[in-house]
Amino acid sequence: MSTLLTLKQSVKKKGAGFVVLIDPDKKNDENIIGLVENANLNGADAIFVGGSIMMDSFYNDRIKKIKSISNIPVILFPGGVNQISKHFDAILFMSLLSGRNPHYLIGEQVLAAPIVKDIGIETIPTAYLLIDGGSPTSVEYISGTKPLPSSKPDLLVGHALAAQFLGMKMIYLECGSGAKNRIPNETLQAVSSEIDIDVVVGGGVRTPEDAGQLVNSGASFVVIGSAIENSKELISDFASAIHQ
Ligand code: 1GP
Questions:
Q1: Domain containing 157: what range?
Q2: Which of 20, 83, 130, 205 to mutate to test ligand 1, by most ligand atoms within 8 A of the CB atom?
Q3: What CATH number does the domain containing 96 carry?
Q4: What is the pLDDT of residue 124?
Q5: CA–CA separation, 143 vs 105, rounded Å?
Q6: Fewest C-beta in 10 Å: which of 47, 66, 78, 216?
Q7: What is the DSSP letter of 43?
Q8: Sequence-separated (6 or more) residues with CB below 8 Å from residue 12
Q9: What is the pLDDT of residues 21-78, one digit of tens each?
Q10: How many domains does one find in the chain?
Q11: In this structure, which residue's CA is closest to atom 1 in ligand 1?
Q12: Ligand 1 pocket test: which of 129, 226, 232 has the largest number of ligand atoms within 8 Å of its C-beta?
């Protein structure tokens, strides 16, 4: 079964999917095994692996480690073409649709496509919309793009509908890792009620209560990174809140 179908079945069975985000950087070396084991044990539906910048050269070793102990899909949430690896079950083949930088709209994808084909990895076409979460994000700096204001739901709906009509399978509404504010419930509700494809929400989701509210507002998947990096025991609470 494809990874996309596995993800969709989790949503069908449990109401929404819980995704654990692992930043495979040096700073998380100590944490990686514990995070994957906790994700396995506590009902997470998938692991996304990705980050805007890597501070050493051991990225591939960490990916291999994650894949060797995970019993749920391990999916690349790419910060760039240099993060592609054969160890993933699938890659979110993303376009930074909220931005107007051609390199992140189509340039990276052109560089990535032949490698992805050669490896034979499953692609999940995903529109990535960066939304203002009240603090500057690494994505903003690296991509040279401005986030969409969360107070302008019509603008978000326009982008989300364009993504759907372009054939994307998922829309990732991203406030950025460690964002001050997560996406507001009413903004998410405005987008999710207008589109038919799955909405992935992440960035600044700190508590299981918040995650539950996002599911009630239309998120098909909630991605949690920072909140569980140092509090792995929270994984089971997030799982219960998301799997309503
Ligand atoms: C970032 O959406 C993810 O790409 C997760 O963000 O680290 O704030 O949970 P947090």
A1: 3-242
A2: 205
A3: 3.20.20.390
A4: 98
A5: 10
A6: 216
A7: T
A8: none
A9: 999 998 888 899 999 999 999 999 999 999 888 889 999 999 999 999 999 999 999 9
A10: 1
A11: 177
A12: 226
